[in-house]
Design goal:
There is one protein chain. The protein has 132 residues and is mostly helical. The chain has one domain. It has 4 helices and 4 strands. The protein has helices at 21-35, 52-72, 101-109, 113-121; strands at residues 74-75, 79-80, 83-87, 94-97. A two-stranded antiparallel ribbon has the order 1-2. It has a two-stranded antiparallel ribbon with strand order 3-4. This is Head-to-tail adaptor. It comes from Nocardia terpenica.
Length: 132
């Protein structure tokens, strides 16, 4: 499995770094790899792009995706945490709500718009194979 970023890379995007950063990076790297699966580029023996600009775009896309998940409270493997929908002081009642399950699945299973644009601006994630 190709991992395009490290926890150190997240420092420019998130503060503090979440405890589950490694798992989030792995999940985001999988989405980035899927989005770029039709792209052709020279690679290093490790499978990363030889071109440093392409490597940087993949790294940034992963970091943006992780940042989006963390800021939205989404854990790709855990889902969303319930949020307080209402509460009463005297009665001690608290109601929680969860987002629409379809929206949650979409947010977990797809790259966010900014991560996708990061790849597209580097000439990646075209979605179409190059026919020579």
């Amino acid at each position: 499995m190709l991992i395009y970023a490290s926890t150190d890379d997240l420092a420019a995007f998130l503060n503090p770094i979440p405890e589950n950063a490694g798992a989030l990076i792995r999940s985001a790297s999988t989405l980035v790899r899927d989005a770029t699966s039709n792209d052709l580029y020279d690679t290093t023996p490790a499978g990363l792009p030889s071109d440093p600009d392409l490597r940087d775009a993949l790294r940034r896309a992963v970091c943006v995706q992780v940042s989006t998940w963390v800021n939205a409270g989404i854990g790709p493997s855990a889902g969303l945490k319930p949020v307080v929908a209402s509460q009463s002081a005297d009665g001690g009642s608290v109601s929680y709500s969860l987002p629409d399950p379809q929206l949650l699945q979409y947010a977990r299973d797809r790259l966010c718009h900014e991560a996708h644009l990061t790849l597209r601006n580097a000439g990646l994630a075209s979605g179409r194979p190059l026919i020579c």
